[in-house]
Design goal:
about 80 residues, mainly alpha, 3 helices
Length: about 80
Amino acid sequence: MTPTRTPQEKAKELCNTFIKTYKVYLGPPVRTARDEAKENALLCVEEIMKVTTHENQEFGNDRFSENYWKVVKREIEKL
């Protein structure tokens, strides 16, 4: 099992994953690849939070802590 990343590391990892897909001309209105990547990373985190809330309630599993993903979301917003 891979070690757990900090919320800051996870935020950067998610944005970097998406930014690779947006290294193209995005057309008007002009948005940067970073803006697009952040938006998509935030959408992913929101979906994960929906699932983890259910999983945490059903299984009491701290590994899927909603709190962790809230911090990841804040870190993405700071990038």
